[in-house]
Amino acid sequence: MDVTIYHNPDCATSRNTLEMIRNAGIEPTVIEYLKTPPSRDQLVRMIADAGLTVREAIREKGTPYAELGLDNPQLSDDQLLNVMLKDPILINRPFVITSMGTRLSRPSQVVLDILPETHKGAFSKEDGEQVLDAEGKRIA
Which of 3, 6, 7, 11 is catalytic? Predict the structure, then answer.
C-alpha cells in the first residue's frame, strides 16, 4: 500500500503517526512539509479529502496564528491558504494519504482508520498510551 505522510519530526503526534504506519508493515513516503511544503493544489485536495475546512486545517499552537490575526472570520479560504503556503508551520499535521482515504491524524490513532489491519503487535505512543494490543487490534 502506498502511504504518504506530511511529517514534522519535532512533533510527537507526527512521530507517533509515522510509527503506527510502520507498525502496520508499511514504509511510507515521508515528506517533511516544513522543508517541502505541498503545492496549493495538493493542500486544497488534502483538506477536502480529509473532510475538513481550511480553518480546521490551520495549526494555532506554536505558530504565528494569533500575531497574523488568522482568527479574523472575514479572511477567505484563499487568504488563509496563501498564508499557510507562505508559512507552512501553519499547516496542521500530520496529514496522511492512503488508498483508503486522507486524514489529519490528530490524535495520532486516527491514522488507523485508513490503514490495513496488518499491525505487528502492540503499539504505545511516546507518552505511554497503548493504542494497539499484543495482537495488533485497536484498543480505543
Answer: 11
Cell reading at 5: 505522510
Active site residue 11: yes
Residue 117 pLDDT exceeds 70? yes
The three grid cell numbers given for residue 16, joined into one nine-digit string: 507517533
40-92: same fold as 1-33+96-140?
Answer: yes
- The CATH number corresponding to 40-92 among 3.40.30.10, 3.40.50.1110, 3.40.50.300, 3.40.50.12780 equals 3.40.30.10
| Architecture field, domain 1-33+96-140 | 3-Layer(aba) Sandwich (3.40)
Average pLDDT of the chain, as a whole number: 95
Distance CA(87)–CA(58), nearest Å, equals 11
Type of residue at 3: V
Taking the C-alpha atoms of residue 100 and residue 84, their distance in angstroms, rounded to an integer, is 26
pTM given for the model: 0.92
